[in-house]
Structures are given as structure tokens and as C-alpha cells.
Amino acid sequence: MFNQIFGKQKNQQSQQYTKMEMLNNYMSQFYNFGRDIFADENVRACIDTIARNVAKTKATAIGANNNKLNYLLSIRPNQCMSAYDMFYKTITQLYINNNSFILIQKDNNDVITGFYPVNSSSVDFLESMGYIFVQFTFHNGKKVTVSYDDIVHLRRFFNRNDMYGDSNDAILNTLSLSSTVNQGLANAITTSHNLKGILKYTGSLKPEDLKKQKDMFVADFANINNAGGIAALDSKVEYQQLKVEPVTAEHEQMTIVEEKIYKYFGLNKKIIMGDFDEDVFNSFYESIIEPLLIQLSSEFTHKCFTERERGFGNRIEFSGNRLNYASNSTKVAMIKELLPYSVFTINEARQLFNLESVEGGDIRIQTLNVVNADKANEYQIGEKVNKEKEGEQQ
């Protein structure tokens, strides 16, 4: 797999590199220090919700001769992943590490042949002859150095360092509290099923006899096969039960912990549970999904096209169809108002209701009650001339 991903890249190993010097003296090396947060079930639910919705968006390469690029971005970016898989993994890594890297694979003619998310143990930013390079170190010890121009780099909490996003240290205390709450609940359940007490014998027994009698009592009463839960004691022994009330977090306290995690990711429970209306989803889209799509569009456009190609209008756009989450009444009203103004094609209107496209449905219809703004003066002047001619004839 290492050779499949990096084998076709230009050999950068013979160059001489130096550590990239940061303006604020922070280190140039980035470690995936935040990966443990994914072990928390609430964190995983939050990241999964965001990654799934970003992965459903459509990536489109706009410009001439971009059919190959469109196929890579929308269908199969590499031989191991679908486009959905690549963007899901990319966003997941972004939220776990606050940095995410995608390698732009190219052939010997600098033609893009694929995209591959890079998940390494550490990343080091280097420089050589005025250019920036990235050295990835993997868990098996292998290293590879590639040009930063061939890397799509997404960042979150981009603040202290000049090249990569900050860590997730701010949420670690909350996650520790969440783990403590869950463990306390599990221990409370276990404790409530355990018998705790003292066996008091009227006579004096040797230590070994005390242990033997205690073991016999435990074997008789605490045995899982003792379905009746009854133990037999004679007058020489008295059992005094010790009641231990386990202390657990109250529902309100557990909810506060969950809400702090949701707040960190900018989500609410309705979005995570899929119990939302169009207003809640639009808020989620505008606050979380749309900024990610802007970041993806900007970074992919800059890294996939040269300055000259960008000058000719080549770009990559990421867009999501928010209308799919609108209510049927909203969809009907929107089609009724906008279809006559040529905003939708017939097939685009049908897609809002998950209907199949029809032949000839890619046309736009327009009401005769409106006129092209460029033709408005011509229309008015023509009408004035016609009235003048009618007056002369009279």
C-alpha cells in the first residue's frame, strides 16, 4: 500500500531539507496527539454526524477538460475508496487531530491521477530552496517527503502554530469526567448485585476455621445457582448486612457532561439523533457544514489547478442540497414560486421529492410575465415607437 500511494510521487529524498522555522518559535512537527478522543461514544457520535453530512456533499470541478478530475472527486478518488469514504475519513481525521491531509497523486506529466487521505503518526514541515515540504512518519517507521503543493491540508482551531491546528486539550477534562461517570454507573450496578455483610459467631474459632465458614457461606448464598436467594444459618452464627448505597451522577449532571461535548463540536442532540426539522438542519448546515465546504473548495482549487488555470475560471466547488431536508410544504411553495422564474429545471424540481428524472426534463421554463433585464429598455422603447406609429396613422 505504501508503494501504491507514494510510489508514483516524485523522488524528494535526495534533496537537502531543514526544519521549517516558525514565526512564533512553535515546533514545526505535528503529532496526532488527539486520537484518543474518538474512544468516547459521544465524541464519536458527533464526529460521525459531521463526517456523514460532509461526505454526502457534491464536489464538482468547473472548467474545460475536467472530466477525469470530476470522476476522481465524485466517484473513485483511489482504488481503495469511494469519494464518500475519502471525504468521511478526511473530516473524521480533521476533528480527531484538528489537521487532515490528502495526498494529490500525479503521474510523470503532473496530471492528477488520484487523491488519498494520509493518516500518519507525525508530520514534519520542512523547507528547501524556498519551498515547503511535508514529511510523514508512519506507525511502521516508514517516512516519505512530498511537496506541500501536492497536499490538501485542512485545519481546525488554527491559532497558535503557523502551519497546523491546535490540539483538543480543551475537551480532555470533560471526556475524563464522562469516563468517570460511565465507570461509576457500571460499578454501581455491579455493587447493587453484591452482598456485603459480617458473619458473627458466638463462639471462638481459629482463623482457618473462620475463613472456612465464610467460604462455605459465600458458596451457599452468593452462588449464581442459588435462585431462591436464601441461606441457612444455625444459632451459632449471626449475619449482619452492610448496606452500601453507591453514589452515581444524577441525570441532570450526566446531561450537562453530554451537552459540554455537543457544545465543543457545535452540535445539539436533535442533529445527532436525526430528530430535526428544516430550521434545525439549516442552522447545523450554516454553522458547521458550510464552513467546511468553503475550506474544502478553497484548498482543492488552489492545490489542483495552476495559477494560469485558475485565471481561466477552473475551480472546485463543494455544495450540499439543503432542500432535501425541507418539509414538503416548503418544497411545494418553493417550486410554485421559483419554477416559473427559471430557477429550477423540471428534473431538479422532481429531485426534491426523490422522483426520477424524465426525458426532456432538463429544460427551464419561464413565465411571460417577466422580461430579461437586458431587453427591458428595448421592450419599452419598442412599445413607445409602436404607440407613436399608431398616433401618426390616426
How would you summarize the topology of this molecule?
Layout: H1 2-6, E1 18-19, E2 29-31, H2 41-55, E3 58-62, H3 67-74, H4 83-97, E4 99-106, E5 112-118, E6 122-128, E7 131-137, E8 143-147, E9 151-155, H5 169-192, E10 197-201, H6 207-221, E11 237-241, H7 251-264, H8 269-273, H9 278-304, H10 307-311, E12 315-319, H11 328-338, E13 341-345, H12 346-351, E14 364-366, H13 373-393
Antiparallel strand pairs: 1-6, 2-6, 3-12, 4-5, 4-9, 6-7, 7-8, 10-11, 13-14
Helix pairs in contact: 2-4, 5-7
Can you walk through the features of this model?
- This protein has 13 helices and 14 strands.
- Strands 1, 2, 6, 7 and 8 form a five-stranded antiparallel beta sheet that branches. A three-stranded antiparallel beta sheet has the order 5-4-9. Strands 3-12 form a two-stranded antiparallel ribbon.
- 43% of the residues lie in helices and 18% in strands.
- With 394 residues, it is of the alpha+beta class.
Global mean pLDDT: 81
Low-confidence stretches: none
Task: Count the DSSP helices.
Answer: 13
Q: Secondary-structure element sequence? A: HEEHEHHEEEEEEHEHEHHHHEHEHEH
Q: What would the principal axes of the Cα set say about the shape?
A: extended
Q: How many beta strands in the DSSP annotation?
A: 14
Distance between the amino and carboxyl termini: 88 Å
Rounded to an integer in angstroms, the radius of gyration calculated over CA atoms is 33 Å
Query: What structural class do you assign from the helix and strand content?
Result: alpha+beta
Helix content: 40-55%
Range of strand content = 15-25%
Major sheet attributes: 5 strands, antiparallel
